[in-house]
Specification:
mainly alpha, Arc Repressor Mutant, subunit A, Tetracycline Repressor, domain 2, 2 domains, elongated, HTH_TetR, HTH-type_TetR-like_transc_reg, TetR/AcrR family transcriptional regulator, Homeodomain-like_sf
């Protein structure tokens, strides 16, 4: 999405209810970072798309790195919310929760609009361990792995930690591969591939 498209997204969202500058900046950053990557967009472009200026942007975010971290924090929060939704939909059914998560990821990866894909892209781009976004990415990774381990243990499957890592690598691989293959939709068969791995851990 180019700057004009990002501006239209910000303005369309503001048509019903005016957004404060900080929210407009985050909306524009999400659109542009998602399209061009966190290193492919400058603060001037983001400010322009948000209908503001660099001074206002820096008033709300002291640096671009902190803006990137907040952008990633928002994506991670969406992923955490999905876990809560799935638990509500399948209470007391750990295997069903795992399957529901895999299905959601497969559907979202296939259509290229899943927050996890943006997080995976950012994880490849942000290599500096001191970047504030790195902490967000690492915490998000730990949270997803911990959720998988918890559900695998609750399902009484053998070697739950190993199974969780296998599933996690399969999921992350499908996200990263989609970015390069695109229409090949490698994530589409994610539940089927995962089912075979899960079956191998049944006692």
């Amino acid at each position: 999405m180019d700057v004009k498209s990002a501006e239209q997204s910000v303005h369309s969202g503001a048509a019903a209810k005016p957004q404060p500058p900080r929210e407009r900046i985050l909306v524009a950053a999400r659109e542009l970072f998602g399209r061009h990557g966190v290193h492919g967009v400058g603060v001037e472009t983001i400010a322009e798309a948000a209908g503001t200026n660099k001074m206002t942007l820096y008033r709300h975010f002291e640096s671009k790195d902190l803006l990137v971290a907040e952008y990633l924090r928002g994506l991670a929060a969406e992923g955490a919310a999905i876990w809560c939704e799935i638990e509500t939909e399948h209470p007391g059914q750990p295997l069903a929760q795992i399957d529901a998560w895999l299905t959601r990821i497969a559907n979202h990866v296939e259509h290229g609009n899943e927050a996890g894909c943006a997080l995976a892209k950012a994880a490849v781009q942000i290599t500096d361990p001191d970047h504030p976004g790195r902490e967000v990415l690492d915490a998000n990774t730990r949270q997803h792995r911990d959720n998988l381990i918890r559900l695998c243990r609750a399902s009484d499957l053998a070697e739950p930690e190993l199974l969780a890592d296998q599933l996690f690598l399969l999921i992350e691989g499908s996200r990263v591969t989609w970015q390069h293959v695109g229409d090949g939709r490698p994530g589409a068969d994610l539940p089927t591939l995962a089912a075979g791995i899960i079956a191998s851990h049944r006692r």
